[in-house]
Structures are given as C-alpha cells and as structure tokens.
Write a structure and sequence with these properties.
- The chain contains 13 helices and 20 strands.
- By secondary structure, the protein is an alpha/beta fold.
- The strands form 3 sheets. A 9-stranded mixed β-sheet has the order 7-8-6-9-10-11-12-13-14, sandwiched between helices. The chain has a 6-stranded mixed β-sheet with strand order 15-16-20-17-18-19.
- Helix 4 crosses helix 7, helix 7 packs across helix 8 and helix 12 crosses helix 13.
- The N and C termini lie far apart (about 55 Å).
Length: about 450
C-alpha cells in the first residue's frame, strides 16, 4: 500500500474542489480505501449522486467536523475567512511529505513547463527512471496510483500549489518571478511569497537552483547553485557567456561548455536560461558527464503554444505563443524571433502593469499590432499615437487573423503572443492556441 494512504485511514475526509485534481484525489483514496469516509465540497453541485456533497459555504461553517481537508490549487484561501491549519492540506503537500527526497520541483512565472519537460527528457535519455507531473496537467497522485515508485519525480509547481505549504522538494528550481495572478492574491508580495515556498522549507541536505538575477533571495538553508548570465563573482552554477559559450563553475574550477544554439529546437535567449537550469539539475542529480548531457538537448522538442512554429502560409510565417500571459514573456518572444511584422495582443484583464511592454512596442519594428479581448481598448488607447504603426481593434481572434493575412508583409512573421490570460474568450491558453492554429491553416489555403 502506498505510504500516503496511511494519512487517510480512519479519517473524516473532505476533498475541496471537484476539478481534475480533486477527482484524482478521490480515485487515489478510493482505490486503496474503498470504504473511506469522503465528502466533496465545491462551489457547484456535483453530478455524481453517489458521493456526499456539501457547498463551499457549508464547508466553512462545518470545517471542524473534518479531520483532513485536501484543497485543490485553484481555490484561493484569500477569498475565505479561514487560515491555514494542520487539517488543511493538498496533494502536493502530502506528496512531498513522503516523496520529497526524490522530487525535483520547478517553479517560475514563465518557463516552468519547458524546464520540467526538459529535465524529464534528459533524465530519461540517460536511463534514469523518472516520472513527470504536477501543474502541467498530471496531478501528482496519478503518478502513484498504478505503477511502482520511480527513482525521481520531476514536478512542475504553480504558485497555487506552493501557496502555504510547509515542505519543499529536495531539488528546487526557481526560474523567475514576475507579477501575475493578482486576481488570486491580494498583492504581488503574497504571490512572491507563495513562489518562494519552493525554497523556504529546504534543509542543508537539499539543493536550490536559482536564477542569478534574483539577488534579493536570502535566508536559504540549502546548497545554492545559480544559472543565468555570466558574472565573474558567481560562486557556482551554469552561466551563459557569449553565443554557444557557457561557463560551468564550482568553487574549485571553471569549465567551458559549448551548446550549439542553432542545433537547439528551443529558440530564444529566455530558453537558454531554462536549458541552463535543466542541465544543472540533471547533472547534480546524476553526476553524469555534463558534456554528454548536452548532446541530448538537441533532441528535445518544444512544447505546444510556446513559440510554436505553425507554418508558412501565403508567404507569412505564423508563430503560436499562446502561453504568453504576461508582458515580459511577449517581449522575450519578440526578441527571440526578431522578424515580427504583426503581433496579436490582448486577453483577460488581471490588472497587470503593461507600461514596460507598451514602451517596448513603441520603439520596436513591429508594424501591425492587433488588439483583442478585454484589454483591447486599453492597449489601443496606449498605442494609437504611434503614427508609424498600424494599431487596430478586433472583436475576435479570427478577425485578427483575417487582418494578418491582409497587412503582414511577405517573408515576415505574424505572432500570437497575447501578454494576457485567455479566460475572457477561451477555455484556457491551449484552446486559444489551438484556435489560432486552426484559423491560420483554414484561411491560409
């Protein structure tokens, strides 16, 4: 029996949230303890009449009746008048309680799915038994329900999964922190605090891999390694120096590494940071020859919706970067591609500051900026004074693509990189990206 199951024996359990993770929690418990006392709490009444159900309001009123409450990550405690207690936990916290010693956790506002997938790819390439899951769509309990334990678990961790947990992975990677999810948190500081939980509960036997641009991080108990742009003062880590050239540095040695950027499927300077973090983690875990590890980088295929090349249609190159939900990622996409003539921008308004992106676009060579979603009026009003640019508003993504075929110059790029969430018009960023690809292909015939 899986050791996590001991947490549920003879307990009055509430699963709070009936999405994919909540349902996987129920399946996991029910497999090993089919007679467990389980109640489902959700804001919407569930369809399964055979299960005990209470509303979120009832849960708050009767919270003391439960021995264990397993909260789904999408539920913000900031919306309820309750505080963290020992009975309130999550899949990730229970997983780390029993599997911390063999877990690599990856977080960051951007790049965490790519970095997580790349670590998994590298480990599997050198025949290390690894499993992948977490925020990228595979709840961690699903990694345990059927198969024997893996040697390592590579887990993508969102701020929601890290919020208020009291455990950190053995190897923790912090890629970056930019303002996001301010509709979930009361402030950027609370969001940042959640992200830093990936490091906060490490001990002297653990390893922290941190972007060296994040100088303000202090009071970490673990062994610290860094990645980023080369700085002669850095103690140890993997650092980008010049094109194709990296420095692998420890206290006792410096080693030059060659990574041929033109052979990488992952494009852009921001992905060189993700690659550095993944390569460093894989080396520290395995002690495998780092030069030989580099060879496996070239086989890695980028994930969908992340600077994904859709194809050339009517002599226009189309790229899908629907994963871009913050201004910084759109700037990174534009700098990575460098030949963008048309940018499709906008989506759900989460109250993020767009000053940096607006200033960047005003100085950029992007001629056509098509504004969509809840942010379209705001973006248009802040960009319309640029006489050398064609700033337009569209009610739908489909209309923007029609215009892209009309206005984009031959042999130039049309890029979807919205710098905003998708939920105003789409189910999620995947849905937005899939529709973009579909419209591009249909209209490009």
């Amino acid at each position: 029996m899986n050791p996590i199951i001991e947490e549920f024996i003879n307990k009055n359990i509430c699963i709070w949230g009936w999405g994919r993770e909540g349902q996987s929690t129920y399946s996991f418990i029910n497999k090993f303890l089919p007679n467990a006392n389980i109640t489902i709490a959700d804001k919407n009444k569930i369809k399964e009449k055979s299960l005990k159900y209470i509303s979120e309001t009832e849960l708050i009123e009767k919270i003391d009746l439960f021995d264990l409450i397993i909260k789904s990550p999408g539920i913000s405690l900031y919306n309820f008048n309750i505080k963290k207690s020992d009975k309130l936990t999550s899949q990730v916290e229970l997983f780390l309680k029993h599997y911390k010693h063999k877990t690599i956790g990856v977080t960051g506002t951007k790049g965490k799915s790519t970095t997580t997938s790349l670590i998994y790819h590298l480990l599997r390439s050198i025949n290390i038994d690894a499993k992948i899951g977490g925020n990228m769509g595979i709840p961690v309990f699903e990694l345990l329900i059927n198969d024997a334990d893996a040697d390592w678990y590579v887990i993508e961790l969102s701020c929601h999964q890290l919020d208020q947990i009291k455990l950190s992975p053995h190897i923790s990677i912090l890629l970056n922190i930019f303002p996001e999810h301010l509709d979930y948190y009361k402030s950027f500081e609370l969001y940042k605090e959640a992200k830093l939980n990936i490091l906060s509960h490490q001990n002297i036997h653990d390893i922290a891999i941190i972007n060296n641009s994040m100088r303000e991080i202090q009071m970490i108990n673990s062994e610290i390694w860094q990645f980023g742009n080369y700085d002669i003062n850095e103690n140890r880590g993997l650092f980008y120096q010049t094109k194709n050239n990296f420095i692998f540095k420890n206290k006792n040695f410096n080693k030059k590494l060659i990574i041929h950027e033109d052979k990488l499927q992952l494009k852009g300077k921001h992905n060189l940071l993700n690659i550095s973090a993944a390569l460093l983690a894989s080396y520290l875990l395995s002690n495998f020859d780092i030069d030989k590890l580099i060879d496996y980088l070239y086989d890695f295929q980028p994930l969908p919706h992340r600077l994904e090349y859709v194809g050339k249609y009517q002599n226009i190159d189309f790229y899908n970067d629907s994963i871009s939900t913050i201004p910084q990622s759109t700037i990174a996409a534009l700098e990575s591609l460098g030949n963008v003539d048309t940018l499709i921008l906008g989506g759900m308004d989460r109250g993020i500051d767009y000053t940096e992106l607006i200033d960047y676009l005003k100085k950029s060579k992007v001629r056509n900026i098509f504004c969509i979603g809840e942010l379209k009026i705001f973006l248009y009003n802040n960009l319309k004074e640029n006489q050398d640019k064609n700033i337009m508003i569209f009610d739908s993504l489909e209309q923007a693509i029609d215009a892209a075929y009309k206005y984009t110059l031959p042999d130039k790029i049309c890029l979807l990189s919205p710098a905003a969430p998708s939920y105003d018009q789409f189910k999620n960023f995947e849905d937005r990206g899939d529709k973009f690809k579909t419209f591009v292909k249909i209209k490009g015939k």
